[in-house]
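Troubleshooting: if your tokenizer reports a length mismatch, compare your output against this known-good record of 341 residues.
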Amino acid sequence: MLILGIESSCDETAAAVVEDCTKLRSSVIASQAMEHRLYGGVVPELASRRHCENILAVTQQALDEADITPQELDGIAVTYTPGLIGALLVGVSFAKGLAFSTGKPLIPVHHMTGHIAANYLAHPELKPPYLCLVVSGGHTMLAEVTSYTTFRILGTTRDDAAGECFDKCARVLGYPYPGGVQIDKASQLGDCKRYQLPRPKVNGSELDFSFSGLKTAVINMVHHAEQKGETIEKESMAASLQKTVSEILTEKTEIAMHQTGYTTVAMAGGVSANSGLRAEMEQMCRKNGYTLYMPPLSLCGDNAGMIACQGSYNFLAGITADETLNAYASGTAIGEMLTIS
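Known-good structure output:
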């Protein structure tokens, strides 16, 4: 079975071919990160235009590297939610046109389930059920993966996601976009105990996340220091922030593991590449005897391999769409077209 995946939810135009659910035959990504760095973040209109310019060439390259033609595909998977609406529409429109012209099934994929599926590409031995911590620029959630296509959300962010917290704090500290990786690099040179930062909690919901207050605290500390003519130790602030976020994520994951009784946990999403978070999770799992799965760094960020992988499982489960498929900037927690257990 050969599935083409197309991903255009933010600022990467990506296409990939996956064979038999977990074998990555090709993966091509056209990143816009350096262009958006000029503006300190992703400019939605610019991202959409670049997707229009890149998507045909990226898809053709993915097919060429996989050494197949569109007619040899069994299906075409595409990210339809969540993300920047203009960017999503480029990928969905292209996938719909390709599916119509080739007569191949169109397979809708929720972006967050794609991130979870990235683990299957690196660890095909990983099988549901298990718990997954999903952390990215726009989303933070604890999901119970009950099958390859069904999920139960145990906790989610009430405001800012972990990645958004990193990015906005990085900006106020003077680091370029994308901020998360800059925080990670700077933290290696700082003292994580230098600054005491708050650990926001959601009353009555111990598995939900809230990073808005933490972000605001860092921004206020930096601004107050500037007003007093004082100097913030940027590397130590980055280290303190990374340590705080990593501990919050890990502690809530540990609570969820105790509550559910699972002994297998996975991480997914762009922030799962963070070295501090990976170290905290590894330490927690060693302490409890849990088995931890993490995607390699190359599969943590947005890519089409994860979309093709999840699309393969959706296809096997009979989850397909017709020409009325639309893009949605935000949908249900795990997707309007998937079964929520």
